[in-house]
Write a structure and sequence with these properties.
Blueprint lengths: L5 E7 L1 E2 L2 E9 L2 E5 L2 E3 L6 H13 L3 E13 L6 E11 L12 E7 L1 H6 L7 H11 L18
Parallel strand pairs: 1-7
Antiparallel strand pairs: 1-5, 2-3, 3-4, 3-8, 6-7
Length: 152
């Protein structure tokens, strides 16, 4: 049987001790996550994270570095996620742009505020990425080599 993890990207967006999160409805449950999602066919990892931030927060995202690569298996569904987390900056919200279906709101939260909501985290990767950012982890984006290109 072929192993096919879900290939995802996530944006870690810090600003003055707070981080940008999305509150989203997943299977009738409200959860907190970084702006994140699946990589679509023909996308690079960087273009995927820029798109996901725009769709989920109505903000332009500028990735600065790769925080880390995370492999996690959900004990309930047994699905495996391979997550590439990028740190960067985001512009102001475009009020004219609607948020993706399922996104209820966006929130700027400090780590302690996130801990207080730990039961609502989409996965343990949410807090792990914040902790890795706080510890100073950084990898250059050019460490990722991608020969994927969109069909023309």
């Amino acid at each position: 049987m072929a192993w096919k993890p879900d290939l995802t990207v996530a944006a870690i967006i810090p600003d003055q001790g707070r981080y940008l999160f999305v509150e989203e409805r997943i299977k009738r449950r409200l959860v907190l996550n970084q702006p994140a999602g699946h990589v679509e066919d023909g996308e690079t990892l960087v273009s995927a994270v820029v798109r996901e931030v725009a769709e989920e927060t109505a903000r332009e995202f500028v990735p600065e570095y790769l925080l880390g690569i995370y492999l996690w298996r959900d004990p309930r569904s047994l699905r495996t996620t391979l997550r590439f987390a990028f740190v960067g900056t985001a512009g102001e919200r475009d009020a004219a742009r609607a948020l993706d279906a399922g996104i209820v709101a966006t929130h700027w939260l400090r780590r302690d505020e996130l801990i207080a909501r730990e039961a609502r985290l989409r996965s343990p990767l949410v807090l792990q990425c914040v902790d890795d950012h706080c510890s100073g982890k950084r990898l250059p984006i050019d460490a990722i080599h991608c020969s994927v290109c969109a069909s023309s």
